[in-house]
Amino acid sequence: MTRTVPPVVLSSPADASNGQGSTGRPLRGPLPLPTFTDRRVRHTVYALSAIDHNGRLADQAVVRAMSWAPGTRYTIQEHRGLLIVDADRQGVFAVTRQGHLYTPAVVRRRCAVATGDRLLIAAEPAEGRLVIHPPAAIDAMIAEYHACVLGGDPA
């Protein structure tokens, strides 16, 4: 037994002129697209990188954006939930041979960063600084922004 599928009837241009489709229902126009008036004024390079059990951040794009070669020494400071990474000849840490950043366990514990967490890294080449955003900091930023844009309580 063969079944026939009924044809799909698309509305014709004549139907569109009266604003109705072939079913008699009003036609919908194209979906509105948002217009963004804000343009980027910074040259920040972003990466979302997982952290391994040794504290290494796998993404190398931000290190390259900073022009940091393996062996480049740096410092890490926690500031209000963010990790601030600055190149420093006297720094305790160094970019690995593979081009990875290392985050010490004491810093990971302080910021509640667990193995496998993805961290947002913002490279600011003009300022010579990386800013690492742990998940808790990302949650707080997004909640605040959503509350500002969408209304409501950020908590």
Structure description:
With 155 residues, the chain is of the alpha+beta class. It has a domain at 61-149. It has four helices and eight strands, in the order H-E-E-H-E-E-E-E-H-E-E-H. The protein has helices spanning 13-17, 61-65, 105-110, 135-150, and strands at residues 45-50, 56-57, 73-79, 82-87, 93-94, 101-102, 118-124, 129-133. A hairpin with a 4-residue loop joins strand 7 (118-124) and strand 8. It is elongated and about 75 Å long.
Task: Give the oligomeric state of the chains in this entry, treating copies of one chain as homo and distinct chains as hetero.
Answer: single chain
Global outline: elongated
Strand line-up of the largest beta sheet = 1-7-8-4-3-5
Strand percentage, roughly?
15-25%
The percent range for helix content is 10-25%
Put simply, the count of helices is: 4
Structural class, by secondary structure, is alpha+beta
Order of helices and strands: HEEHEEEEHEEH
C-alpha end-to-end distance: 61 Å
Number of strands: 8
Average predicted confidence as pLDDT = 85
Low-confidence stretches: none
C-alpha Rg (nearest Å): 25 Å
Largest sheet: 6 strands, antiparallel
Strand and helix layout:
Blueprint: H1 13-17, E1 45-50, E2 56-57, H2 61-65, E3 73-79, E4 82-87, E5 93-94, E6 101-102, H3 105-110, E7 118-124, E8 129-133, H4 135-150
Antiparallel strand pairs: 1-7, 2-6, 3-4, 3-5, 4-8, 7-8
Region (Disordered): 1-34
Give a short summary of the structure.
By secondary structure, the chain is an alpha+beta fold. 21% of the residues lie in helices and 24% in strands.
